[in-house]
């Protein structure tokens, strides 16, 4: 799909560099998520650095993931200057949007 992640690279300060299949590139900041639910585990830098891609989505080994629409709307342009198509304002910067959470059945 057009929002599938092509590459992901962990960066300092709980950020990731992401390239989407359609060519968009940017930085996604995970700091606002680190005090919420399953994302707390990402505070461990060694674990955070195990970020990868599964079925086109940014994921970690214990099944934390970022919803594609959240990733695309919240990432900021990288040095190439390629901006995401959508950049909405966040109403509550300390609260992750509900779309960031994936619920998996046991």
List the helices and strands and how they pair.
Blueprint: E1 5-11, E2 15-20, E3 25-29, H1 45-48, E4 52-54, E5 57-59, H2 68-74, E6 76-77
Antiparallel strand pairs: 1-2, 2-3, 3-6, 4-5
The amount of helix comes to 10-25%
What overall geometry do the principal axes of the alpha carbons give? globular
The tally of strands reads 6
Compute the CA-based radius of gyration: 13 Å
The quaternary structure here is single chain
Helix/strand/pairing category: alpha+beta
Written as H for each helix and E for each strand, in order along the chain, the element string is EEEHEEHE
Which percent band covers the strand fraction? 15-25%
Strand order of the largest sheet: 1-2-3-6
Question: Could you name the ranges where pLDDT drops below 50 across 5 or more consecutive residues?
Answer: 83-106
Notes on the protein architecture:
The protein is α+β, with helices and mostly antiparallel strands. It is built from two helices and six strands; from the N terminus they run E-E-E-H-E-E-H-E. The chain has a four-stranded antiparallel β-sheet with strand order 1-2-3-6, covered by helices on one side. It has a two-stranded antiparallel ribbon with strand order 4-5. Strand 1 (5-11) and strand 2 form a beta hairpin. 22% of the residues are buried.
